[in-house]
Amino acid sequence: MGKVVITGAGVISSLGDSLDEFHAALCKGQNAIKPIELFPTAMLGCPLGGEIKGFDAQMYLGKRNLRPLDRTSRLVASAAQLALDSSGWTEEMRNNEEVGLILGTMFCSVRTISEFDRRALEAGPTYASPMDFSNTVINAAAGQTAILHNLRGVNTTVSTGNTSGLKAIAYATDLIRSGRARALLAGGAEELCFESFYGFDRAGLLCRSERQSGDFPIPFDTRRNGMALGEGAALMMLEDAESARERGVRVLAEIKGYGCAYHCSRGREESAVEAIAISMRRALDDAEMLPHEIQCLSASANGSRQGDRDEAQALVATFSSNSHRLPVTAIKSMLGETLGASGAMQALDMVETMRDGVLPGTINLGETEDDFPFPWISTVRRKIDPHNGLINSVGFDGHCCSLILARGVESLC
Amino acid sequence: MSVEEIRATIKESIANIANLELVDITDHASYKDDLKLDSLTILEIAVSAEFCAAVPSSGSGLEMRRRVAVTGIGVVTSVGTGREQFWESMLAGRCGVSPVECFDTSSYSVHRGAEVKEFCAKKFVLKLDAAQLGRASQFAVAAARLALEDARVRIDSLDPGRVGVSLGTTSGEPQEIERFDDSYMSRELNKVGAEFIARYPCHMISAHVASELNFSGINMMIPTACAAGNYAIAYAFDTLRAGRADLMLAGGSDAFSRITYTGFARLGAIAPEICQPFDRHRKGMIPGEGASVLVLEPLERAVERGARIYAEVTGYGLSCDAHHMTAAHPTGDGAARAMQQALAESGIRPEDVSYISAHGTGTPTNDRLETVAVKRVFQETAYSIPISSVKSMLGHTMGAASAIEAAVCALSVFNDRIPPTINFEEPDPDCDLDYVPNYAREHRVNVAMNNAYAFGGNNASLVLKKCEV
């Protein structure tokens, strides 16, 4: 079974469009949750979101025809460009060899889908736009990106709610391990739009704040009252370690393993603790590691009442017998819940944490509940020396996924 | 390490975690009744005990040696629900196309579709509240239950954590967003409640299936449009081979969608009356709906429990045209690469393929280019392989299509019979292969290939083989 390594990355986020900038902003504790400008918020209970201000895909993709691409597709195509550049997969190489794309997204663009339908309702079906129709499929962003960058390998869209991005990386890992692919872009993307925002708002899942910005969401805090939505795209280039070595490229990190589980009783009284614990345990099994070999953890916690408690309890159950206390961060305190992109964003930040040894804090955090010991988590960044990090992705709908990364240096041995 | 030593180590670790005296932990003490531990502590002990044992899990080696069998088939279609009724309709060449009922088509130039009529969700959705599920979820739950029944699996014999669900779709639950749009247009958005976000996202389909049946293993939703069913089956195949699950429910589901209908109508791709794949005067596709779920399990396990094995899945191929969002590659490049990969993995030569289930939508371009791609791979043998499109009967069921067609392949392999391409009247010089016109055929089917193509240039081919144990 071959090793799978990360040889490049691209991120378009509300806190920056390079890995350095993104990680530095998170370590500084910058909060991206601000009043939304993308759409009117008058009828929303929560007017805040982690929006990418002034996003312009042309900045990354140059003078190409971007008219057929909606916001989600533009986010993905831009992140893909950055990941291809940083991993050295030039256009010429992509003509000769198959590079694939495994994209995680919860909605792709529900705005495109809804606008297409509304246009037909308003003006009649003959006025619906054929170009927009091709973007109403959930694999539109993956397809558009493949066309733009000539990605002729496996092209799969994974949609499992907030866990989509991490599951896409997990799936890509298996495809490379089993020799089905040599090089795959993998990660996730989600755009902020009225349609999904309104849905979450109506479901009472979004945070409520007295003030206009600043102090919500607060993962793991006793005062937490919901998540904030964000947006972005995060892709990594995954390659078979052997071929990466042959190409002589730098290795940012290694994928050690992953685990998945599903919590069947979603929405009912029972908690998802067990499913989250199983997901982490399967990841450790897959990586052939023991809990004490994990030196830092990026939690999925986003400020939701039940979800954060379940994850905290699963962390305690899995890691409390360690002699040391495991440093935990919840970067959704700054980025918001970026849904399909979230797991991939956490993974990319983990790559940077392992490179520079700084783990971002969980901002706004005051008091945690009794069953989640405070020393595990900090409001400010910490200097650590991690060899292996675990990333959790937990959906409010029962999906769980965990991924383990190892520092790049180790993987060269 | 002796058993005694292991026992002592475990006791010590329990004492540590639960803060108990070592002497209190006797060999047969119950966590709950004797040691009075809460459930979280018990879970913690269970997790740590697994690590103590430190047995390398069978799941970690992606050896890819396990063989995978299809042992159950469940379908919901416009020509029948359940394997028996469906297969009878397929062989009889029954057509599921009728006037569209689920929305008003008076402002459209076309009016026909292949809807599933008289579907009673309550017959299948038993644990969850059927009214709270979107239509595609209801279809998927029904197909999953039918497939498990068909496979005669005793559910209580399975570890729920090792049973997974992998499904494909094109639109997810389109009727949910359409309802949202109706409220939006009538300025009644306040009518949209919590149910919108609880039902609409496409992953709720696989989530609902798992929740209904209590399966907590790997849960996957792959929305790769009209080839999604094949992608989901391929994922399940890999998951089983890698030892990440003991049984997978794999397939696809899609509900009739106004959005999809509008789009295809606008592209001029919908046939006014009937779907005539590969016919000289074919006028387009007919949108449809439905679901198909296969029970996949390791061949070894299937043989052990004496299961009926319809076919063995031997390999697949996935590729991307990277050419155009809605049009196929003019030389059939991507489609050919997918077929070649599927054959190579299966260790099967082109001339050994006995049946090809075509994507065969009935649009002028698809059928012509698909023929080009098949010839590119099979060359001269292409002329001697029967190829049929069941979309002539079922319409295009979108994300469910290739999963339904995978069921057709499995049944063809098992029964040595091939369903026809109905409505075939006049051959097209550009489509000059054997499309099994109008009547089912008896034919020895050792190997079947299932081809599917989708928006986004996504191509997926699957190979199923007669099972030789």
Could you name the key traits of this structure?
heterodimer, A: 413 residues, alpha/beta, Peroxisomal Thiolase, Chain A, domain 1, ten-stranded mixed β-sheet, three-stranded mixed β-sheet, B: 469 residues, Non-ribosomal Peptide Synthetase Peptidyl Carrier Protein, Chain A, 2 domains, eleven-stranded mixed β-sheet, two-stranded antiparallel sheet, 15 strands
Overview of this structure, please?
By secondary structure, chain A is α/β, with parallel strands linked by helices. Chain A is built from 15 helices and 15 strands. Chain A folds into two domains: 4-247, Peroxisomal Thiolase, Chain A, domain 1, CATH 3.40.47.10; 257-408, Peroxisomal Thiolase, Chain A, domain 1, CATH 3.40.47. Helices cover 36% and strands 19% of the residues of chain A. In chain A, helix 12 (305-319) links the parallel strand 10 and strand 11. The two termini of chain A are 16 Å apart. By secondary structure, chain B is of the alpha/beta class. Chain B is 35% helix and 17% strand. Chain B has 14 helices and 15 strands. In chain B, strand 14 (447-454) and strand 15 (458-465) form a beta hairpin. In chain B, the strands form three sheets. In chain B, strands 1, 2, 5, 6, 7, 8, 9, 10, 11, 14 and 15 form an eleven-stranded mixed β-sheet that branches. A two-stranded antiparallel ribbon of chain B has the order 3-4. In chain B, strands 12-13 form a two-stranded antiparallel sheet. Chain B has helices at residues 3-18, 39-53, 83-92, 135-151, 174-185, 195-199, 204-213, 228-241, 258-266, 299-304, 333-346, 364-378, 391-394, 401-415, and strands spanning 68-77, 80-81, 98-99, 112-113, 163-168, 219-222, 247-254, 290-298, 311-320, 355-357, 387-388, 417-418, 441-442, 447-454, 458-465. Chains A and B meet through helix 5, helix 7, strand 5, helix 8 and helix 9 of A and helix 1, helix 2, helix 5, helix 6 and helix 7 of B.
